[in-house]
Amino acid sequence: MTKSQLIQMIAEQHNLSKQNAELAVSLVLGEIVKAMERGERVELRGFGVFEVRHRQSRQARNPKTGDSVAVSEKRVPFFKAGKEMRERVDH
Question: Taking a C-beta distance cutoff of 8 angstroms, is the pair 44, 51 a contact?
């Protein structure tokens, strides 16, 4: 499902205009991203947890040449599905 498909489905199921549904989806996703930019953990009960994980710098290999390459440290987004979501998907 794409973002536009999600917006369309929310608009139809809740009798909203497409613009209002798009605004709602964009606001929710935007706030999740802003919280993660600040290094905060976002927990949505029954859905899952969004958090930022820190990756240390390391030595890696270029798969084409086999040369050693330095990979700098970075922060990466991480999502862990909640128990309810895992159970519903696994049905």
Answer: no
The two three-digit tokens of residue 52, written as one number: 């930022």
Q: pLDDT, tens digit, for every residue of 77-89? A: 999 999 999 999 9
Q: What is the model's pTM?
A: 0.80
List of E strands, the chain: 42-44, 48-55, 58-61, 68-71, 74-81
Q: What is the pLDDT of residues 31-55, one digit of tens each?
A: 999 999 999 999 999 999 999 999 9
Closest CA to 37 of 27, 50, 26, 47: 50
Domain ranges, residue 44: 3-88
Closest to 43 (Cα-Cα) out of 80, 8, 72, 3: 80
Non-local CB neighbours of 1 within 8 Å, separated by 6+ positions: 9
CATH of the domain at 13: 4.10.520.10
Count of structural domains, the chain: 1
